[in-house]
Amino acid sequence: MAGKAKNIEKEIAELRQQINQHDYSYYVLNSPTVADVEYDALMRRLKDLETEHPELVTPDSPTQRVSGQPSEGFEEYFHKRPMLSLDNSYSVEDLRDWARRCEKLAEGRSYDFVCELKIDGLSLSLIYENGLLARAVTRGDGTRGEVVTANAKTIRSVPLRIETDRIGEVEIRGEVYLPHESFERVNRERAEQELPTFANPRNAASGAMRQLDPQAVADRHLDIFCYQLLFAGEPAFASHFESLDWMVAHGFKVNPHRKLCRDIEEVIDYCNEWDTKRDGLNYETDGIVIKINQVAIQDELGATAKAPRWAIAYKFPARQASTQLLDVIYQVGRTGAVTPVAVLDPVQLAGTTVSRASLHNSEEMLRLGVKRGDFVFIEKSGEIIPQVVKVITERRTGNETEFEFPTHCPVCQTELVKPEGEAVTRCPNVSCAAKLRAGLLHFSSRRAMRIEGLGEALVDQLTSPRIQRDKKGEAVLDETGSPIILPPLANSVADLYSLADKKDDLLALERMGGKSVDNLLAQIEASKEAGLARLIYGLGIRHVGERTAAILAKQYGSMENLASASTEELANSFEVGQVIAASIFDWFNQPGNQNLIQRLKSAGVKMGIVQTADEAVPKVFDGKTFVLTGTLPTMKREDAKQFIELRGGKVSGSVSKKTDFVLAGADPGSKLTKAEELGVTVITEEELLKLGESES
């Protein structure tokens, strides 16, 4: 028995070593060394062994990155050395003035500067005791922060253990951020669930780190760049650059674009260079942090009450535009969420014409204090999402008028409700035409059931009452001489599968000839084979996005198994937390939804895992990384991404040496320039299609 135990311990140790090395290669070096399926197999084996032998579980095991129950709150922690903020500079003259002050205080001693990209995220302190991650603490007010260790462990580039012979605490400070591709995914999934989207990646990262449920944090896919090393509360090396090298050598992720500069003019050149290059990055940077490299001089220069004298942040000029806010319209989505949308006088911003911007919710409207006729600043967060960031109150004339957030649904006139703890106002009417319309569009979308012919105009007709007409197309009148009104053809997604019996009714709709009707019915019939993952996603369960739907389909294998799962079982599923689990459980326990599932099943919609056409496509792009830039001739950005991922490829938000192809369209921007500098292969849409179909 002793021998068997030793073998198990050895296998566990080897598995942990392998997984940690794969994590380092993937999350720190951005160079994966193993396929996802192999990695998943290693992790499953480790989890199984640790479940069988809980006495062998250790805090630094890869399985402990997401573990335990949600916290009830965060413990306060006083920093042994304050986490100060930095003074900001907004011009090269500001930088020169700061350099002159430093020179005067240094009294003729020589020094150089270290330049690092300023990451727009959340400052975090990682504290190691005897090489083991003991606690992670937010910056807070600089003196005290909140202990968020469980959340920090979900960041795969954070080592859970380091190999060092240093005695006492080792403290690593860094900036937690959300990569662009993760930000887009999170906001897309939140929009699909009609949750408020995040205004920018920083808000998303900051909000994640204060989540009480570590699983919810893990779902964000946060990352970190480390920027400061302290040994037992004191500086580690004679120079800051040496400490950065030490962190790299010990497995920490440090921004690769750091640079040692001899004088302030080199610093200014570096700042100007990155003001133009930053668009090619996969994360937000709003400036450059400049530090004196020599630690002895740092100590002598000291700090004010708020900021060190030996460091400064240079802020890039904001990419904003000003325009007039003409009106606000209110859109109702499939969960009843009412979203205010600003109607703007069209303006050019970051290469596109912007005429609409989401105001998110009533609380955001109140915070901004927007009025009809206001001039406002708008910007694109991460060059992605247009948003109103500020009202230009100085331009008010007195003719502006207040907005009143509606008290009743703008579509069905039902009184709106605002659930406790939510920022979103919702229409509670289950029969609201807007909710039904949005639900049908979601169900038939390309990422769900893929019913191509079901566009907005047709859905409007299917969900609206109709006038009964005779064979000549004339209205049929009742005994009072009024047209006879027929109910909508679709009051739920299940009604789509009975439209084949209502062909004459479809032919009576606008722009629906015989061929159009036949094509639509063929698409609906084909959607029955879409597969379990697409069906789960198409149902529109709150908090269940495309990725979660795929995980649930793989784990449960059938709709019946998923519907019968308890909240506890769901919460223990891979990457499914308490909030998502509760939402799924509640959805399947509503009689109306149970009836919907039964109707879909009776109509012949497949409720289990089937091999779809997607799954049968050869993975000719396996292991290849693509970056998309510019406007393609025929494909939308999402379609191109789907085409690549369907064939096993990965789409990244930034160009690097590890990029295999850059897909370039019209007006490509800085990503094309970066690709040419690095010698990355640039292809057209036509070339992509040829490559993708070459072995299909």
Structural write-up:
With 696 residues, the protein is an alpha+beta fold. It folds into six domains: 2-65, Helix Hairpins; 78-315, D-amino Acid Aminotransferase, Chain A, domain 1; 322-421, Nucleic acid-binding proteins (OB fold (Dihydrolipoamide Acetyltransferase, E2P), Beta Barrel); 433-528, 5' to 3' exonuclease, C-terminal subdomain (DNA polymerase, domain 1, Orthogonal Bundle), CATH 1.10.150; 530-614, DNA polymerase, domain 1 (Orthogonal Bundle), CATH 1.10.150.20; 617-693, BRCT domain (Rossmann fold, 3-Layer(aba) Sandwich), CATH 3.40.50. 36% of the residues lie in helices and 20% in strands. The chain has 25 helices and 26 strands. Strands 13, 14, 15, 17, 18 and 20 form a six-stranded antiparallel β-sheet that branches. A five-stranded mixed β-sheet has the order 2-12-11-3-10. A hairpin with a 2-residue loop joins strand 14 (337-349) and strand 15 (352-358). Helix 1 runs antiparallel to helix 2 (36-52). The longest helix is centred in the N-terminal third of the chain and has 27 residues, at 2-28. It is globular.
* Quaternary organisation of the protein chains: single chain
Radius of gyration: 28 Å
**Overall number of structural domains:** 6
Question: How large is the share of residues in beta strands?
Answer: 15-25%
The number of helical segments is 25
Shape: globular
Main CATH class of the largest domain: Alpha Beta
Strand count: 26
So, CATH architecture of the largest domain?
2-Layer Sandwich
List the uncertain runs.
none
Largest sheet: 6 strands, antiparallel
What proportion of the residues is helical, as a percent range? Answer: 25-40%
Question: How far do the termini sit from each other?
Answer: 53 Å
Q: Per CATH, what is the topology of the largest domain?
A: D-amino Acid Aminotransferase, Chain A, domain 1
The CATH fourth-level homologous superfamily of the largest domain: DNA ligase/mRNA capping enzyme
Name the average pLDDT. 86
Broad structural category: alpha+beta
